[in-house]
Each structure stands twice: as C-alpha cells, then as structure tokens.
C-alpha cells in the first residue's frame, strides 16, 4: 500500500509550478496528508469492487479455494449458468431494475425540477413551511416509510404491481431540496423578470429559460435518484411478491436465501452483482459530461 | 397440558397483540368465512427452489380435477419473510399459502395470520412423527400447518482424517470434547469444529437435544426457560471448549469456513440431514471423504437428537379458499408423487416418514456415495428427534443469541452470562408485546 501512496503524492506536489517557489516543503507536506487520505479512501472503496470483479471470474470450485485476488477461469461458465437459471429470469430482473430506476428517476427529476423552481422563484404563503417539511423529509430515512407506504397502496389495491415500486419513489425530498438550491443559484431573478417583461408566459419562462440553466443540477438529481432506486431493497421487498416483477437487488437476494437445505448460489450471485454494477458505471461515464456544462456564462452580465 | 387451555391462550395472545384495532376484526372475519366452492386460484409464497415444477404436477393432475390452481411466487427464506407475511396480513393481502419454518409458526399464529386447517388435513397426521406434527399444532387441537421438511441433527466427520489422527467417532459429548483436545494436541493448526455464534438454529437444536423447552405455558401465561439447566449445560460445554481453545470460535457459512472445510482445517461438523448439499458447495474437494454418524449424546444410555431447520406449508387467514388451500398443502406433503418431485427438484428431506426411505432416498446423496446406508441411518436418527417448544418471539431470542454469544465467543468469555442475556431480552420483549409471562 505504501508503494501506492508515494507516486500518487508526487505529481500533485509538482503540479504547482511557479507558485510559492520560496516554500515548497510546506506546501508538499500539506498536500501529502489529504492525498494519502484520499488514496486510502479510494482503496477502501475500490477493494470490494475489485473483489467482485475477480470473484466473478472464478468457477464454483475456485471461489473459496484459490487466492482471493487471483483471477479464475470460470467467467464464461458463470454467465452461461446465470443465463440458464430459471430460463434467464436474471435478465428479467435487470430489465425491471432498468424500468424502475430509469422511469422512476426521470419522473422524480421532473417533479423535483417543477417544485424546486417554484419554491425558488415564487413567493407565496407557506413557502417556508413547505420547504421545512421537505427538509424534514430529507432527514427521514426512506426505510421507515416502506411499511406505511405498503399499507397505503394496499388500500388502493396497487401492491405487487410495477406502480407500487414506482409511485413512492417519484417524490424525492432530497431531489426537491437540491433543485430549489440549484434553481436559486443558477436562475437569476433578473432573467425571469426579463422574460416576463418580454411577455413570455410562466410556463415558457420555465421550459425555455430556467430549465436549460438548471440542467446540470437536474442531471445530479437524476443520477442520485437512479442509483437510489437501482440499489433500493426494502421498498420492492415489501411491495412485490411476484418474482417476475423483482428488481435485481431482490432477485439476487432470493438466490442467496434459498433455505438451509439448499446451498446458496454464490457464483451466480457474485456474477449477477458484477453485471448489475456495469449499467451504473456506464451511466456515470456517459452522463458525467453534462456536469461540466456551464449554461450560465453569457446569460447575465454583472 | 390441557389442549383447550393452550388453545385459549393462543387466542388471548392474539387479542392482546391486536387489541381492539380494526385489524383484529378484519382478521377474524375472513377466518370465519366459509370456504368458497368452485374454481379457486391460489398464490403460494415459498423459497423452495424448483417448487414451480412440483406445483405443475398438481395443476395438471389433482388440481385440474378439483379446479384449484396454484401459482408459486418465489421468496427469499428467513426471518425477513415472516415480517413480510405479517405486513401483508396487516393489509389483508397475505397469499393463500405460505412456507414457514417451525419456529416461526407461533409468531404467525399469535398474529392471527394462520388459519386452523384441522378439518381439512387431520388425516395427514399419521404420515408424520409425533414430535414433528406437534410443532404444527402448538399443542392445541388446532392444526396450523402441514410439515414439509425436517432437519434432524447429526454428526459429520472426515473419515480419513479421523483415522489419520487416531480419533474415535464420539458417541457422547465427553468423547467429543476429548476428540477435540486430542486433535488440538496432534495438529495445533487444525480444529475439530467451530462454535458459530451466527447460527442460533443450531444452538436451539443442541439445547432441544439436551431436553430444554424454551417456551412453555402454564395457566394463561407463557414461561420462558431459555436459561434452564439443560441449556446451561450446553452453553457451558461449548463455552468451555472455546475458552480452552480446543475448537475454533469463528462463524460458519463464511468463505473462511468453506476454506477450512475444503482444506481439512476443520474435520467435523455438527449439522443436519441437509448437510450434503452445503458440503457440496462449501468443500467440493473433499467429496467422498466424509461420513455421517448420530449426534453425540449427553448420557450413553440416551438416544436423542435436536433439529436445525425444517419448514411447513400453512394456510393464511386472508385466504378466501382455505379449504382448497389446505387440500393442496396436504397433497404436497403426503402424496408420494409430490414428495418424489420435491426430493428430485428441490432436494428437500421430507417430514413424511414413508418418503424418507423410498424413491430418491434409496440411494445415498452423491457427496456421500461412500456411505450406502446414509438415508436409512438418517431416518432412524430422525425418529429420535426430541420435542421442541417454540414461542411467539423466537426471532428476538435468535437475535440476542447472535449478539451475546457472538461477543462471548470472540472474547472467549462466559457463555452463561450470554445465555442469561438471551433469557432476559426475550422475556422483556414478550412483556413489551403484551404477553403474560410467568417468572
């Protein structure tokens, strides 16, 4: 591990050419500690991922008998087994997860954008009260809401349906909170005012002027919500009983908990978990670039 | 114990738990409703792999004749499923049929989630050992489930390594301790086995063998005796072995444990009849080197075992077709065609006695091909299963076991104190839930 930290620290120390030439030793010492901390953090986070990647390549025989970080030879076999398991139900779970997370995050982002913009731009009675309730919602872990939500949806006869998993996740207090903060910072009141002066309707101002400015923030909301829904376990666990509607998290759990007399399907679960991470990684790589867009530049001269 | 009294006790427990809420009214209403005749479409929550194929046999055979169609909804096993069933039951939406482990039945019954199906499955009683059937009646004249599979405890050991180290297969727990010490002396890097604080079910089974009855009733009150003499004996025995370092103290079912079995670092395992399945994946390299023997006894004159695992098929009070559902439950667990399919597709060890030595169980499991009489022996052991006594909050007792014994095993400290904590926490939880508890 120590061999990793040294090369990591060096380019950072060298990345400040020309500045403060007089006292480089001090700067180097300051930069070293955060760098080492971050590197340790990165190793801490990435080690389990590396384990999953490597373990997914091991066949059942190799899994517990070979050295942990020695790649195995069974990846193709594992994927074949996963494909064959109950006629490819794994891919059904994957499709369900994509539907829940994709559609859910999209709807949730829309709701967040609407309400965040409204809370940031308009002044009306009870605005702060609404916002405070939302803040309380941010502090409330969604886990404790799952059972009440189930009882509520049971009254509407909606349990064990796609809607039962989608509906509760559309309103994300954190998303609304983020959207309000972002809209307040990114959409200057002057711009909205100018739009009104030019005779644009409120809807037009929102869709044509404010929304484009809010895009980087909304991408963040989308990503957060996508990951939250993709990883969510308890809500679908309580809502769904038909395993053809299960998302990937629940599906893998049923593979693991098969009862005492049946061995857990470790290789399938590990391979399944590895494949389930790939869409998230791909999504981050693709959407990442929207964050760097700076739509604000040139809108207002101050 | 008088049956009627016990029955009333369960009922009063139900009333206490649900109080005067609308839920109680809701639950009992559907329980009283007459079974609807005509075609029925039922849902069944189960974790057994391959159950859909067994159910197909029903849907194409007897089910088609009676116009009763079953749909399997596969679930994950464990305590979480009990919570899920109870949550669904609160909304009146529990499935018609559920798979439930024996120790979960009192919890489900005290929440009024399970229907009394004694009228429909009474004939099935003869197919099962008394000790097994008694678990589904909770000692009342009601029947809340039909037994499906059982997990009598046995002793598994590496035949080759026992020979190598000159160890005798222990028939008493004293001999077991001696074997552990002898092995430690001969090969300090090896362990006879481990005490796993993760597996509450195994500890409960060992206590059951020693004669413990953790939950009983007297009058209209529950009595919790987790901290009784029998269990203390078991806790002291294992705690002593851990403390002196004669056995390992690491949990089972971890990659490290798999490796220890696979490489012969642990050479024996106290487990249940389903162990061959676990060993197949945990220790694939040692196939054919293991053998099975009865569980060691506390007294050489005794012949008893406990159980670890096992489950039943129950009908819920939310079902609108309780009679039809019970009919299926009885077929699934007593019909020879169904039991054969269960053994073949799902690898379960049947609770029904006549199935234990027929069909798929004529041959030993592939992993134990060296022990031709594996299942004959297993059936004999199964018959010696001591009666069990489960209560309405086994989950709480199990959780406390994991915490208290986990810490005690890690620190190699007093198991007696851990047992006392298990007793106290279980009693405290029952009082909190509103059960009357005698001290």
Automatic annotation (TrEMBL), chain A:
Its main location: membrane. It is found in: Cell membrane. Pfam families: BPD_transp_1. GO terms for biological process: transmembrane transport. Coiled coil: none annotated. It is a multi-pass membrane protein. It comes from the Bacteria. Residues 1-23 are annotated as: Disordered. Belongs to the binding-protein-dependent transport system permease family. This is ABC transporter permease.
UniProtKB/TrEMBL annotation, chain B:
Residues 1-24 form the signal peptide. This is Solute-binding lipoprotein. Gene3D superfamilies: Periplasmic binding protein-like II. It comes from the Bacteria. Keywords: Cell membrane, Lipoprotein, Membrane, Palmitate, Signal.
